[in-house]
Each structure stands twice: as structure tokens, then as C-alpha cells.
Amino acid sequence: MKRFDMLQLFYPCRCLLCGQTLLTAERYLCLHCLCDLPRTRYHKRLDNPMYKLYEGISQIREVSAFLFFEREGAAQTLIHAIKYHGNKSLAEQLGSLALREMKPYGLFEDMDCLIPVALHSQRERQRGYNQAEWIARGIASVCQRPVNCDALYRNISTVTQTHQSFYERHLNVEKIFGIRNPDALAGKHVLLIDDVITTGATSIACIEALLTVPDIRISVFALAIVPPQ
Q: CA separation (Å) from 42 to 52, 96, 108?
């Protein structure tokens, strides 16, 4: 018996959502929970409500989110595993899964590069990584586009936005992002990638920074989004 099989025998891997023992071909999630994820299916909708977050920004091209984020729900469990429990490869796997499901519908086909929402350097050192970067890596493995982690930077470390109102969230992230080497992005179509979108405040602050780049086009992807009220 191979060493991996022996480890599985004595220390079986379990589904992050239901706790069921995973089969050899399964990773992080059992097939049932994988199929039962709360997908938005925004990429199939002509009336994609996520566009309302970016009304009036003419440089916006395509926007979508993979999962609905609800308190105590499946997406929250997965996002917490990614953000607070060091599960980088789960972020990568979900990013890859999301784009594989969207690709047949022609979404995000003509990107020049992928840009993760930046963490402040202090926060990234504490966490050890930027979760949006690992989601981007999963997407890049499918679309074969480069991930540019240097273009966008955060110059202020903001407080957590979990319990803030819509207005407070926007004030919290106002003018905190900047762009390095904007000439390298001029005329490009970039895909901005975040883990969770709640009010859109963070992504809009990133977009405001990106709009300083001449002739840029911007699309937005989030692994999860809070359902519109």
C-alpha cells in the first residue's frame, strides 16, 4: 500500500462542509457538497445584478461572482478556510472551478492579465499570503493569463469591514489603493479579482485607482458575493 493510501487509512481527509470522508479523487469537498454549492450563475443571466454595483463606470466590461455568501453558509465556511486557516490551495481550486464553469459561456475570454485586490503589506505578512492572489492563480491555470500582483497596492491598512454600514465601508477604503507602473497597463483589459464582495466598496476603490491608467478596460470577478437585498 502506498504511503498516501496508508495516511488516508489512518487519517482520512474529510469534506470541509459535511465532514464526510473524502474519496481518493475528491479534494476538500465531497462530490455532493461540490454540486450543491450556492452558485450565483450570474454568467448565465442577461440581468446580472452585479452590474448595478458599477453603474456609470464606462470602462467596466464583464462582472461575475461564483457563489452566494451568506452567514453560516457554505461559501462563508470556504472563505474562512482560505482567509484564516492558510488554505491557499483551496482558493486556487475554487478559482479554477469557477472559470471552468464560466468559460463555455465566453466570460473573461480576452483578458490581458489578472490583478488580485491588494492586501496591505503588514496584513499580508501576518496572514502569510494574499487570498485573492491564490484565487487568481486558479483562474490563470484555466485561461493561461499572467497574474500581476505588483500593479495594485494598498497604502493604508484598513480596519475590518465586517460590521460596518454601506457608507462606512466606502469611507474605509476611499483612496487607499495605488498603481505601480501604470504605463504597463495602458490599453489593457484587466480582470480584478476579490474573494468576497459585500457592498462593492473595495472593488470600486481598486477601480478608481485603475482608472488613472489610459485606455484601460476592467472586468471584475469575486469568488463570492453577498446576495442583493
A: 13, 17, 13
